[in-house]
Amino acid sequence: MRWLNSIGASGVVCLLWLWLLQTTEASVHDYSGEKFASKGNAFVVHGGSEGIYSSVPNLTESPSSNTDSFIRFEKIVFRRPKEFSNFSSHPIHAIVFEVDDREAIGGSAYGGQRAVCCTADLAKLGVCTQGQIIHRPSANNPGWPKVFSASFSIDEVDVALQSRSIPITKTGMYNVYFIHCEPNLKEITVEGKTIWKNPTGYLPGRMAPLMNFYGFMSLAFVLLGIFWFSQYARFWREVIPLQNCITLVITLGMLEMAFWYFDYAEFNETGVRPTGTTVWAVTFGTVKRTVSRLVILMVSMGYGVVKPTLGGLTSKVLLLGGTFFLASEVLELVENVGAVSDFSGKARLFFVLPVAFLDAFFILWIFTSLSATLNKLQARRLLAKLDIYRKFTNALAIAVIVSVGWTCYELYFKSTDVYNERWQKAWIIPAFWQVLSFSLLCIICSLWAPSQNSMRYAYSDDGEEFDKDVTLTLIKPSPLLPKDVRSQPEVRPTLDNNELSNGDDVEDKTA
Questions:
Q1: Which segments cross the bilayer (predicted)?
Q2: pTM
């Protein structure tokens, strides 16, 4: 049954990869037969949401200039079935607006429920035309929101929206929606694409700073690698198993940062996110996080330091690591592969909870094991190992406290930013976790760096037995002392009260 479960879990990941390969999008938002969904009294297709930085208008160049920001509509076609084409329709709208202008969309009569489409009551007030969407000019951004329309004629099956580019002259979170208010337009779909561009490339605004960040992180890992590998090569005869594990983590970190940088760089250049590069970046990152947690857990248990093996716990440790890898891989694939819009779906919570639960279990097990290992080292008076474990425990405790604090801030940030108005600062949240894990890795590297004294921190049968004997001599009296004392009466005989004197001697010796 165990091998069936492992095959099933692997199959789920493989199927997810294939699905994501087929649904990969880009900063070029593709619409392949997207159906309109009922929202209130309107029918809506969400065309995308991205943060875009403004560009200075340049009258001598086209809107598609490399230094300009724009949203371009290309080959947008609305299509309806032949059996529903025997009437002309109200307009189908494409609306583009900045998030600050969201109140300019929709309205209500007499303070009632807010509606996107013009109702009969609002039409009587003369504020809109029934059957069309309600929108008002922006008070802060003249000429916005942008609204474009197309209508079906009788017997017409498809209608095209004119291709156009919209220059972006104000930095903000922009949204594209396709909306119609015609209940009789059943099974209508939209096809085509919109292209979103920032001044520096096609990366969405929230992702743009991450490209430079991963470039700096790649450099940081290279510098750490140079230090570590030079020490490793210099003292390779003294290397212990724990240092081999740290070498693996550093290598995985270097590969992860490099792949993330190339992923963002290619996305920024072409507007199409490279699925293969993204999958490799996600996988290397997930393997690194899994190995890191397993290494910390094994060190906390004293593996290679106070015990040669994990004994019966090996299978449980590997099971926890495998489960964490699968849960994290699925979460990262869903979150990154094919992700374009700056909105994250509510479905993400479904994948986040298992990873959060497993992380909490890791932390609990690590600190429980650390407590037992510290007590054992203190009882055996292994002072060198005890010192390094205390420093390791302090570093872990600080990392956990900082993590909890940052998690609370992240929850506050996202709960108070419903419309992604603080999208320019959103990149700091994933960047912080990378910096924190890198900092902890640097501390571990400084504590267990390869040196000529590395073997003093490794498990040794002779050393452990010697320390155990020394500990016992501190607890029990030496067996030589009573023997020497008992021999004294043979050299110097006593006069009277032999039994009393001997009794007093015994009492003094056992006191």
A1: 213-230, 242-262, 351-374, 395-412, 427-449
A2: 0.79
